[in-house]
Amino acid sequence: LDVYKDELKGKTVIPFCTSGSSPISGSLEEIRNALPDSTVKDGFRGNPSMTDEQVEKQLKNNGYEKQEDKN
After folding, report:
1. What is the DSSP annotation of 17-64?
2. CB atoms within 10 A of CB 39
């Protein structure tokens, strides 16, 4: 995160992890401290059995709205 800190200034960051046992909450404070000029959402923990719809729901719960292709 230190490398991209300036590029993420003013951006919204949605963390996610794929851990099978550890919650993401343990990392959120560290991410927020590393990116003080970004909005860091609560994120989510994914797993291999998640469907696209479940991932989209988690993203929506974190304030992300899918942008439609303009082509």
Report:
1. E--SSS-THHHHHHHHHH-TTSEE---EE--TT--HHHHHHHHHHTT-
2. 13
Tokens of 38: 């970004």
**Phi/psi at 6 (nearest 5 deg)?**
-70, -35
Specify the pTM. Answer: 0.78
In terms of Cα–Cα distance, which of 67, 62, 49 is closest to 15? 62
Spatial distance between the Cα atoms of 42 and 4, rounded to a whole number of angstroms? 19
What digits encode the pLDDT tens for the residues 18-60? 876 777 888 899 999 999 999 999 999 888 899 999 999 999 9
